Amino acid sequence: xxxxxxxxxxxxxxxxxxxxxxxxxxxxxxxxxxxxxxxxxxxxxxxxxxxxxxxxxxxxxxxxxxxxxxxxxxxxxxxxxxxxxxxxxxxxxxxxxxxxxxxxxxxxxxxxxxxxxxxxxxxxxxxxxxxxxxxxxxxxxxxxxxxxxxxxxxxxxxxxxxxxxxxxxxxxxxxxxxxxxxxxxxxxxxxxxxxxxxxxxxxxxxxxxxxxxxxxxxxxxxxxxxxxxxxxxxxxxxxxxxxxxxxxxxxxxxxxxxxxxxxxxx
Length: 266
Ligand SMILES: NC(=O)c1ccc[n+]([C@@H]2O[C@H](COP(=O)([O-])OP(=O)(O)OC[C@H]3O[C@@H](n4cnc5c(N)ncnc54)[C@H](OP(=O)(O)O)[C@@H]3O)[C@@H](O)[C@H]2O)c1
Known about the structure:
By secondary structure, the chain is an alpha/beta fold. About 55% of the residues lie in helices and about 15% in strands.
């Protein structure tokens, strides 16, 4: 499979490295186009892929064209690539907010996949939600699924509206979890734990709780109740979180992210 990347930043590199690690393509089958000279040098020396700053050159002969520029750079990319793609080339866009309709009209192209990955993709623990335009054929769907699986888990959705919702949950979600981890470490320091111990306790607790919830046949609420004995330490802490409207605050944060994702796409 020949792959072109338009944009070789943090997410582009995560996808590139997962593709190579999983041997979905050889370095000689990959071209990355990026405006930043330092990015091009890094990607060429680290992965042995071809690099260019010419987007039109990059897409020549590619089976899959990954769009991985920031939303504010999309207009320029569309202007350059409009009408330049061959009918059988698949466009795989990870650009937040960019609707299939916008991409399809702008690029004058049918086969388009819209995917929303997240940053744990960099270590193969990503969560990607994706959808396709009608013109995407079954082989292109398989290519997409294999690329996204190389980065972690993937879920296909028929309706594009779920992509903006996923943006607010799994796309932005690592930041919510990092904030929770940071805050828990700060709280541990506050009650007197040394930083190295605090960080290890918090990170392993987060990993352990997530794995436990994944593997258990009980719901997260049941697992929470299992560690909450009346009048105990957990009950006291949860009472404080509830007084501070923890659940409601998260709901508001996610709704704001969802609205912003929709705004970006309008
Ligand atoms: N980070 C996430 O968690 C995440 C999750 C899901 C989806 N996404 C989406 O992934 C996309 C990329 O994010 P990122 O964090 O990888 O951004 P990034 O690190 O800024 O990477 C984008 C790269 O594209 C280059 N570029 C800009 N304009 C270009 C053009 N016209 N042609 C070729 N290359 C160009 C940039 O170069 P310059 O620096 O010189 O401009 C930069 O190196 C975004 O649209 C974002 O919405 C990100």
